[in-house]
């Protein structure tokens, strides 16, 4: 176990120094109608940066057009670079660092919206897009891994301080790790060692690209501890994967997450399951389907502070590398608990959506409490403009580039 830290002291994340140990987690912004940076997206990240976080994480920057969960999301390309540089400059001006979450959505990708093929370990039906993801060949896998390396190179050019490789939520790499989804019989299926090849290969490709570029940025990963689904990724297998990732030496930290975007997203969020609001974000007949079967997809789990801590402590006990605790961190007491348990950083999502200046409030008054009530109605806004329905924050800005 690492030594206990003060959450408000500066901290090193690989080659980068953050002003404190608090990270704004990657959460879909729905602020890029043309798959390009807008003033709205900049405001979305500038507010928590001005509000005191050490680093904010931009989601979701797909490594290819077909890797998006829907067609309005940014993917790495030359046209996106000026806006991304404007974004990183704005965050740096507030004294915070900025990370780019890079990944491929795999079976979660919306092939219809993207107008591009989606890929999965095996042919897989996505009910949200009403399309099948294609069985990924060895060449497809190689192309997607190389696309991650290219994204890391472009992130450096755009001024990012870190990249977060998405290995969670049954996206591409995570779907290979899942024994429920990955029914392959070749070198990428069967044993965990085989199923982990995509995740490990992706991280090492990103690390090599960063080292070759010669500009020091941090490389982190978001990794599922468990899918929360019978037959999916288990804590035991994930711990072995994390051990391999540590020994490979490609990462500066791991952010521990949970849940499946395909089957059980509420396993990550906890709290109320906004079935009616979530269904309202879609057109019929999908809207009707979600309303009828919503309790199976959006299962309800009681909210409690630090709700992923129990599983995360298993990883902390086995790993020496820095770990980022996510899930139910809304006040100074929980932050201090995370530090006491040996975690190096904490990541926050919904609480900062409700109050972008929450960190400054907590720093000024250790007894300050978040106003987030875990209603999760913000989940239904990720298809239009992500915001807190309680506070209305952050407010949209319509102008952009």
From TrEMBL:
Domain NADH:flavin oxidoreductase/NADH oxidase N-terminal: 7-246
Keywords recorded for this protein, A-Z: Flavoprotein, Oxidoreductase
One example GO MF annotation: FMN binding
A Pfam family hit: Oxidored_FMN
Lineage: superkingdom: Bacteria
Protein's recorded name: NADH:flavin oxidoreductase
